Amino acid sequence: MAKFRTRLLKMLILGFKQLQDPYYQGFAAQVSFFLLLSIVPIFLLMTQLLGLFDISVESALKLIEAYTGKEMSGMLRQLFEFKSAGFSSVIFAAIALWAGSRASFAIMRITNYTLTGGRSTGRNYFVERFRAIKTIIITIFTIVFSLIILAYGKLILELALSVLGLDSQTYADNIWMWLRWVLGFVLYFLMVSYNYYLLPTERVQFRKMLPGSLFASVGMLLVTLCYSRYANSLADYDLLYGALSSVVAILFWFYLLSWVLCLGVLCIKVWDDTKEKEQVSKRTPVNL
């Protein structure tokens, strides 16, 4: 236990030193801006995919509300009030992917910069942009899959209870109330882990990626829960920003999530660095 505390302290010191690098300044704001630009086209593209499984926009927003609170889902609903026709066209899909890949590209650059110790931000610009588009496509399908699981999870649970001979009406609601948070964390973890695997130019082994993925998954879940409570009870953006209150609130949420993703990458770096130092110290012979 003492060794773990020592290692944790070393990780905090290394992480703090890394964050002094000016390259990290403004990173979260940049990612938040690109996420805000991409949220409407990406969400509407997702609804086209969800429509194949008979899940409407309203149903998707209700699922989001279960994890982010009424205030956050209400803000998203306001953003999607005005939409034109033709969103299923190839041109719209291309625009949505290009807009979404900007945020993925920014995260990719900071990931490469962190894991290489500041030596590189990636390969050729166009190669990295293509990788960013591929990453956002996989992320969209991951989110759609998550929403499908959450939409039909209770129905699947009721069928499973019926097969086991249990009263689904008695147990389903209570079990699902807790199970959906477990599923939410697992889906967060899978999405973060897959992104951490795809983003670096040089692949990171899963065992090295695990601490950062756990940190980011728990952090994103906690940030979403805490911010939804804050938005529901304390924040009154209408007084300062008027009609832009929804945009500002979502931008601030994205800003916090961006920092969590960055700290998750940093956790992978310092975890691996402290492990290497421990192994070197064990191999170093003691001169008598």
TrEMBL record:
TM spans (from-to): 27-53, 85-111, 132-155, 175-197, 209-230, 250-271
Keyword Mitochondrion: no
A Pfam cross-reference name: Virul_fac_BrkB
UniProt keyword terms in alphabetical order: Cell membrane, Membrane, Transmembrane, Transmembrane helix
Membrane topology reported for the UniProt record: Multi-pass membrane protein
InterPro entries associated with the record: Virul_fac_BrkB (IPR017039)
One cellular component term from this protein's GO annotations in UniProt: plasma membrane
Predominant cellular place of this UniProt entry's protein: membrane
Protein name, per record: YihY/virulence factor BrkB family protein
Organism: Lentihominibacter hominis
